[in-house]
Amino acid sequence: MNSLLLRLAAATLLTGSALATPVFPALDGELLFTSNQTVNLVGPSPLSIHTATGLDFNDGDADDTPVVATNSVVTEAYGDFAGLLNAGAQIRDFTFATPPGGSYAVVTVGSFNFHLTSVTIDVNAPWLRLFGEGYTDAPGFDRTLGVYDLDILSSRYLNQVRSLSFYWLATTGVSASAPVTLSSTSAPSSSVSETVSVMDLLGLSGSVLAGCWVVKRRSRRLL
Q1: What pTM was computed for the model?
Q2: Given phi > 0 = left and psi -120 to 50 = alpha, else beta, which region is 62?
């Protein structure tokens, strides 16, 4: 076989290999979840949004009453998330003080899984706000980076959750590199920070991810 035929055969093999590897687009869009089940603050006594270290959702654990398949609903959805409008969603229990002992998607809607990789805690009574970065996994799409904002309205005495909403915005056209490296969030210099190293927290995919993340807390008390 002459050199020209060899080059053509090699090019055919390479082209076939490339075509066999699917290339998926990154997600584009945003959506909003609203809780429709009881959510409890978790933390030391006396418990309030100032001392909370986690959130306990009705997510099917043995101690949840009643046990439900979903605990929130998608109330707004745009772009690639539009098909999820009015779909039931499951937000899992999580802590922002110590590892929960397992890895999971913090929010699951059908086959869409939303994972968090950083969190900043902002307390401005009666609001507790958690925000940061993460990524989304969904069939037919590349793993896509995004940002989230979880807003909690507390009760009059700041020790119970009255309402909760979770907003997610995909970083348009930005796919996550593999493996995903956990990031740190930075709080303004005027804030009070509590830094905690955490592994496998809020939807980390086990052995695929490595490192630690930093939790920042900033609190504004009304006088």
Answers
A1: 0.71
A2: alpha
